[in-house]
Amino acid sequence: MGFFEKLKTKLSKTGKQIGGMFASFTGANEEFFEELEETLIMADLGAMTALEAVEKLRDVVKENNLRSMADIKAALAEILVEEIYAEDRSLKLNTKPSVVLMVGVNGVGKTTTIGKLAMQMKSAGKKVLLCAGDTFRAAAAEQLTVWAERAGCDIVKHSEGSDAAAVVFDSISAAKARDCDVVICDTAGRLHNKTNLMNELNKISRIIDRELPDADRETLLVIDATTGQNGLLQAKQFAETAGITGIVLTKLDGTAKGGIVFAISKELGVPVKYIGVGEQIDDLMEFDPEDFVNALLD
């Protein structure tokens, strides 16, 4: 199965909602536009994004006198791609070592994403070290150790309840000593309250700034797509303090709310860099706006 076919299959739940409405297309009348707007909102694009997309489509259809389903679908695809376009979605990890800081609440698939990303980087010839910076959640370090073993990566971990910033410090020291290319740091997804969580992330960030002042750093927020608009609220909270450089959207294969990609891109101005569409190692994909939109509409 090719990349696009696989993506289309994995996004079938959202695709049936958005692309499926074209199956009953009878013309670009008012009923069609109203149904399209409702469908986009149901797929979690967000009310404002859905309204703007449909208004743009109305104008394009009128200006170009579009009549056929294929032409209207192509016009919609172009509009939706513009909503989530970013000039460069690649990870900027050119220094040695570089740092990837993974943040997000518990249960979104953060540890699994770290493992998959580590395996992809290792396959690309990079020497990767994992940092078990979530010292709050029971068994977090053990789960990350399993992924480190699968990927053939070193891992630095302390005992449960240790100072997370100390683990990050030791990981950076180890990465320098072992000539590693990338350090991927797990972080806590929950502490006793939001303030404590954000304070810990700030402390970790200061350690990285101090120990690797010139290093490239990506701070990736992992969001569960099935949470829809709640995921957007999480993103806003983390973006306020964590300096997010990109989004990883997981569990897109299990939801009809894949439109959250558009809401996040529009409201945060932060690019979606990866999407998770399953449990297999190659189910963590670099995000491509055109492939994503075409998979939804095909």
Features:
51% helix; Four Helix Bundle (Hemerythrin (Met), subunit A); alpha/beta; 298 residues; elongated; Rossmann fold; 2 domains; 8-stranded mixed beta sheet
How would you describe what is shown here?
By secondary structure, the protein is of the alpha/beta class. It has helices spanning 3-10, 12-18, 30-42, 47-64, 69-84, 110-123, 140-151, 164-177, 194-211, 229-242, 260-268, 289-297, and strands at residues 98-103, 128-131, 154-156, 182-185, 217-224, 246-250, 272-276, 284-286. The protein folds into two domains: 3-84, SRP54, nucleotide-binding domain (Four Helix Bundle (Hemerythrin (Met), subunit A)), CATH 1.20.120; 98-287, 3-Layer(aba) Sandwich (Rossmann fold), CATH 3.40.50.300. Strands 3-2-4-1-5-6-7-8 form an eight-stranded mixed β-sheet, sandwiched between helices. The mean pLDDT is 87.
